[in-house]
Amino acid sequence: MAASIAVALLTAILTPLIVYWLTTRTRKPLPAKLPPGSLGLPVIGQSLGLLRAMRSNTGERWVRDWVDRYGPVSKLSLFGAPTVFVTGPAANKLVFGSDALAPKQPRCLPLILGRRNILELVGDDYRRVRGAMMQFLKPDMLRRYVGTIDAEVTRHLDAQWAGRGAVTVLPLMKLLTFDIIATLLFGLERGAVREGLAVAFADMLEGMWSVPLDLPFTAFRKSLRASARARRVLEATLREKRARLERGESSPADDLVSCLASLRAEGSGKQLLTDEEIVDNAMVVLVAGHDTSSVLMTFMIRHLAGDPATLAAMVQEHEEIAKNKADGEALTWEDLHSMRFTWRVALETLRMIPPIFGSFRRALEDIEFDGYVIPKGWQVFWASSVTHMDPGVFKDPEKFDPSRFECQAPPYSFVAFGGGQRLCAGIEFARVETLVTMYHLVRRFRWRLCCKENTFVRDPMPSPLHGLPIELEHIGMAPPCKTDC
Prior knowledge:
alpha+beta; three-stranded antiparallel β-sheet; 18 helices; 12 strands; monooxygenase; monooxygenase activity
């Protein structure tokens, strides 16, 4: 057994080296206008340096140092492939708006989430799937569900925060976002099915960013098996939703799965999305909606613990809304539009600590950009923090200043939600759940960070030390207990 595992590991290591050596012997000459930089050692390149930096929370510094050395367009080698690293608003426009670039996710992601997910699609397929998802995620639809999200947030705070002297924020925020997705997007009632999906999802996340080595006892194998369990739940949910639609027992507006199952292509009347596409993109929604929103709200809580002026302004904004509402009355869509300052705080948090560090694209053809050529087949890598922390784009970028979002940021300068045709379909959904959650949190609690060391790491999402334990003060109640790290 041990010998077979060793042989498999050796094969996994040597195969890329052999392939690289063979392909470099026959590769056509590279263009003369390649960007400056260095490809480093074969296969290894700069991968280990970047991974070490991300795990030690110096990833942003690593990419800024690289840009300082080689400029806003440079070449390097990441994860076994020659890569062009691009930064700045013009580069972001290229990344998010060019049909000459295709998405290129880590190999493990399509194997776990499914090959027909929106992160993998290009051209007409991408526009078709995104358009279908927007039928449910557009503002006109989401305004109907503010009360549902309000009820989920209130239930969560009553069950997980009220009466506690201390809590750990990140896992609770992940629990909350999962519950909102399960209720609103999947239409799953609380019970065994929903609990089974939660367990499968948690196991799946452990191997999402692992080496795609399908061997016993690896994180990737565990994630694949968990993905299969999650898919079975979603496939059964899809069958049930479709049957209820056909019997007239439900509406396409009930949840995202029902909406996608009901859509038909114009002219032919055929199902707009295949069952595989519906399930694959439900998996993406589960991962993206769970991680990004929970990280955003966690870091908002982290920042507000040390910024009483910003917290006071948020409280004042929310109290103005609350004074016109009866006790226990749910928030409305109009209430959310009054939370302008709170959303600016959220945007500034995303600017300084974007959940997504960066991602890759693949050049489908030779591309000329900024005087250089990006060869066909090469990776294109972008990192949002370089633009977000550029003093030429955002004045005093190290300063937390929500007022910078009183006016719309220049095009393609703020890219926490992507941009152009690749703008996140769930941006409005994230706004609603963030505003509703922060409204209830700041009106019910005050908090203090337990850990003296206020740091975070990326793996690959930013995660604060120990999940951000905080002491809670319940407004109008007894003081919190004393804890420390």
